[in-house]
Amino acid sequence: MSAAGGLTAAPRTVRRVPRAGALLRRLLWWCVLSLTGGVERRGALPPGGCVVVANHASHADTAALLATLDARHAPLIGAAADYWFASPWRRRVCGRLAAGFPVRRTGGGLGDLLERTAELRAGRAVVLFPEGTRGADDGRLGTFHRGALLLAREAGVPVVPVGIAGTGRLLPKHGRLRPALVRVRVGAPLDASAGPEEAREAVGALHARTLAEPLRDSAVRRRVAALVSRRGALLAFVWACAEALSWPLMPELLLGVVCAAVPRSALRVSSAALAGSVAGGLLALHLAAAGADLPAPLTTDRMRSEARVTLERDGARAVHAQPWNGVPFKVYAAEAGRARTDAGAWLAHSTAARGVRTLGVGAAFGLLGFLLHRLRRLYGVYLVLLGGGFAVGLGLIVRGWA
């Protein structure tokens, strides 16, 4: 950010560009933004030092630029002195995690900026938000101050406009953090004679272009998302209940399909799958105790023997081994009924055992969906790999227990 007024300060002497620290900050913020919906960049900064001017809708703008701008430029971020440097802990956070330097907004700001001419001449990038404060994320930009342009002319480096989109949704002003894809678009350097209005127009055009660019998606993923929004929980419950009785395909396969397609549904759908699995297991126990013998495809006599032996030895606690040993849940449920296992104890232990696996798998696939949000156009390929991996894994498990 910039401010008008202030005296010209003597440039500092810079011996080296701290690229190692910049690289660590880039990795840190790239990981953070990848976990919150993804981050991507179009374009690149020119060689050598430059002044970067960008729109400012969120505190996350700084993270977006640190995660995407080249570490060889070791970006410095101009930050409001009256906010980010008002207390010791904010000063440390801003300086160490965001490479921030203070810029006064109430007089003297131009002098603060001109102190950075030596860093610019050494090849660093100085990032400024010329609006001076956070605005809106809908393309409306405030008035640009002249400080960034004066700094670039003093140092003899270009001004590079950058448009940022998605940060207003990720971390809105006075709002809470929520997942969103962040996009950064680097434009061509401005003419040396450009004024604040030209810089504002260039940044606004980049921002609008970035907002308007559609995120490529898979038609299959959209259909899955539409199904999940209407009947996802019901489908998960019925699938898991059927698997606990006879159906050969584990509910984790369904969770892999659904949670990766719609990550925000992971908890709801995996909870429904857990409820269906527990209900189906309890029903299977009572049916087996009554003498019913339901079909159990893709199971073996050795699986049944393992479940029978451990149930005789450990009672209902034996089901805690099920999520890890490859023996299907329906085998344990049926053998528990034949062994006259107490239904209350079975309900408690099967809920705990299945809960660890079902909720854990749902959370893992939901996280995968967040991490691969920007690659959702490849969802069809993902389904092929998921189905193939599941088929191979199931075949190896059945063969191992044959």
From TrEMBL:
Pfam families: Acyltransferase. CDD domains: LPLAT_AGPAT-like (cd07989). It comes from Streptomyces gougerotii. SMART domains: PlsC. GO terms for biological process: phosphatidic acid biosynthetic process. GO terms for molecular function: 1-acylglycerol-3-phosphate O-acyltransferase activity. Keywords: Acyltransferase, Membrane, Transferase, Transmembrane, Transmembrane helix. InterPro entries: Plipid/glycerol_acylTrfase (IPR002123). The chain crosses the membrane at residues 356-373, 379-398. Residues 50-167 form the Phospholipid/glycerol acyltransferase domain. This is Phospholipid/glycerol acyltransferase domain-containing protein.
